[in-house]
Amino acid sequence: MIAQALAQLHAIADPANAIRVAAYHKADRVYLGITLPAQEPLVAAWRAALTLDQRIQLAADLWETNIHEARVSAAKLLTQARVTPDAAMWDLIAAWVPQFDAWAIADHVCKAGEKRLVADPARLDAVETWLTHDNMWVRRAALVMTLPWTKQNHPKPAEQAARDRILGWAATLAPDRDWFIQKAIAWWLRDLSKHDPARASAFLTTHGQTLKPFARKEAARYL
Q: What count of other Cβ atoms lies within 10 Å of the Cβ of residue 147?
């Protein structure tokens, strides 16, 4: 499966664009210069043709190539709301997180991870351990992967408890001076403010001065 998948990716590579993409992302890996719209039909065809176990195996193999577009495709292969059983899928996603080194791949994996966290919120216990990880991208993932908890207009008690818990994580990370961490906190609060402005405002009242000015401004954009 992996040989055929790689051949299909290389067949639509754009070497000129690969140079631009590599310069933009900066992470040390191979880039093929394939746009997302060009990748998506391939991923859709793989998903339709493979069993769940085959899909997980192909995703694992694509990730191990360390090719940018292959890692993005791996994440997209695992982005699915309803899947049973999903333990192997979650385990693979979680195993990728400590390897994050750039925002684009991290965000695609986090989108896949969102679905698995919503399917089983008990996995938030594992995500909470990421807050103290040495890798900044892992700490950031704790917020990016939990964005679904910003979006409920009428959260159930368990969803509200999760929302408050994750706001506690944001408070823990607020003193972190890394730009990407500050941006992630602002992203979480900005999205929350569209559905729960009272909590977003309360967070900023209590912790806003801990944030960098740009993050504080971004978080309050819709308040």
A: 18
Angle at 209 between CA 177 and CA 140, to 5 degrees: 35
Residues of the chain by 3-state class (helix, strand, coil), percent to 5: 75, 0, 25
How many CB atoms neighbour CB 196 within 10 A? 21
- 141's CB contacts (< 8 A; 6+ apart) are 97, 100, 106, 109, 110, 113, 127, 130
pTM: 0.96
Kindly report, residue by residue over 28-40, the tens digit of the pLDDT: 999 999 999 999 9
Question: Please, how many CA atoms are within 13 Å of residue 151, restricted to the half-sphere of its CB?
Answer: 7
Per-residue pLDDT at 86: 98
- Return the exposure string of 121-135: e unless at least 16 CB atoms fall within 10 Å of the residue's CB, then b: bebbeebbebbebee
